[in-house]
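Data availability (excerpt). The following record was deposited with the supplementary files.
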Amino acid sequence: MSKEESLVGAHTSIAGSVFNSINEATSLEANCFQIFTANQRQWRAKPISAVDAKKFLQLKKDAKIKKTVSHNNYLINLGSPKKDALEISKKAFLEEIERCHSLEIDYLVFHPGSALTSTQDECLDTIADSILSFEKAVKKGKTRLLLETTAGQGTNVGYKFEHLAYIIKKVKDKIPIGVCLDTCHIFAAGYDIRDKKGFVKVFDEFAKIIGMKNLYAFHINDSKVDLGSRRDRHESLGKGKIGLECFKCLMQEKTFNNMPKILETPNEEIWRDEIQLLKNFSELKK
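Predicted structure:
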């Protein structure tokens, strides 16, 4: 594997045991992957057993996986204005961190949160305060927390680069933080990345507002819905409203080579083909 080979993978399943995700990643010829460390739609979750963790780490080494990513529970809302809901969210997030540490996961990706009955500014402050409460737990391992760009559906925050920049500024001195950019989400949020001109413009804006040093990973998805729709609907690459030019630009940008690019497209049967497509794009001359 050359040093210049871009990191490409998919969200693989932990059905049966967490280490099965590595076998799936290997079958896809992926060099990175993302998992849920537990059921993503339930509050209760078991810790990772020492036996499973050991096997996971050995298989990851054997498979020469370069980066591992975890996505947190969908129920968690670190910006909730409701005290009880916020407390259970923070507890579940702490457990996410602990599981990531046991598996030596590089990045824990999470949706920032939803304002519900509060204002966006209040929600952003609550999210930052929640993240800061994890300081001691985060320091026990090497997992970096990554805010995911959102589509802005409902009362979700994180669909503007300014939202993420605000949170990062408040927590960066105490928490290892960064951003995972979802191509479908930012397109749905109004950032036009369909062609090279738009792609360059959007990433220039990202660099100015958030800073490229804070970008660590990508979710690679086309979009079923139009630009600025504020709806989160993933589509297979080249079959949606974004098109393939965006992904060619992304794969040919050397700055992104060592950042995991994770497919979350809806047709798992063609993930291997999509991974190969992305790898082929990275080999094309600009």
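Summary of structural features: The longest helix spans residues 83-102.
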